[in-house]
Write a structure and sequence with these properties.
This protein has ten helices and no strands. By secondary structure, the chain is an all-alpha fold. Helix 1 crosses helix 2. The longest helix has 23 residues. It is globular, with a radius of gyration of 19 Å. It starts with a helix and ends with a helix. It comes from Lacibacter cauensis. GO terms for molecular function: DNA binding; sigma factor activity.
Length: 189
Amino acid sequence: MLKGMAANEESALAAFTAGDEAGLAFLFRVYYPVLVVFACKFTSKAIAEEIVNEAFYKIWEKRSMFNSLSHFRSYLYKIVYHDCLKAKQVAIPDELPSEAIDAFDYNAELIKSETLRHLYQAIESLPAQCKAVFTQLYVEGKTVRETADEMGIAVSTVKAQKARGLVLLKAKLGTIEPGMLLLSFFLLR
């Protein structure tokens, strides 16, 4: 399934570089949430959202230069990273000393963001009811009872959909154990 998602991203990138706004919209939906999480490591959520929006505008202006998905991703993350540092220095110059910038492991954060992006994509590909249950339980942090009440289904149905979601995610994401998958999900947020 991840190969299929990558193919969709490749197709969207080709459309994007050709000037098709549908390609931009697809890439925005895929990358916006994880880039905001990435940017929040440096600044507030409101500023992070503004920086990510601006990054997509900047990248649209340079769309013809991207010849691969990895080049696109790398450039996008670097724009967001540098703009966050600029915003931080302008807004609160003393809050982020240079040793903190040096100590920050950009590559580790990039890996976390990409892992989170794959996880979100896999959750999005779950069947509708399974996705709704999984999202309420793991993304929104609701209990099984709250989820059952809100969705108007039995507790046993919620538990079954939760188990089904874990099995499907494990199949989509490879050999990651379900417990490790969920641990990764919560650690990467």
